[in-house]
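cron nightly-structures :: item 1 of 1
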Amino acid sequence: MKQLFFITVIVQLFASGYYFKNEDEFKYKLPENVSDSLQIMEVISGESKAFWDKDYEAFASYWVHSPYVRTMGWWKDGGVTVVKGWEERSARTKAHMEASPEPNPTANNVRRKNINLRIYKDVAWLTFDQYGEDTGDSLMDMAGLSRETRILEKHEGKWKIAYVGWLLEDK
C-alpha cells in the first residue's frame, strides 16, 4: 500500500512538471520540491507506524522537541484533546504505550487521501483524510475517517513534526 502511494505521488509530480518549450518540443521539468514532498510523506507514515508499533524512540525521532509543539484533536469517545509542548507529548505517548504495549501493525493499514501539501523553505503544512481500521485497541485506535493536519519544520536537513491536528469522525 505504501509503495502504491509513493508511486502515485511520483507519477502526479512528474505529470505536473511538463511544459512546452516551444510548439515543436516537449520538455520535462522536475518540480523543485519533489524530494521534500517524499521526505514529508515518509515522516507522516513513519511516525504513525512507530506510534502503532509502540516504538517510542522511533516515534520521538519524527518530532521537534520544543515547548511550542502542539497536538489538538477530537474524537467521540474522548472529546477534545490538547497537548502543549514536547515534554507533555512525550510523557503522554510513553504512558499510552506502557498501558497498551502490544504492537498493533494492522493499524498501519491506513489510507491517506485528499492530500494538500504546501512546502516553504523550512516549514511545510499538509492536510489529508485518513481512513483507519477498527483494530480493537481502544486506547490507540483511530478507526474510521479522520481529518488530519500537520505542520512540519526542517531541522538540520530533516523534516520533523511540530503540530498534529485530527478530527475523528464516527466509524
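cron nightly-structures :: done
The first strand starts at residue 18 and ends at 22.
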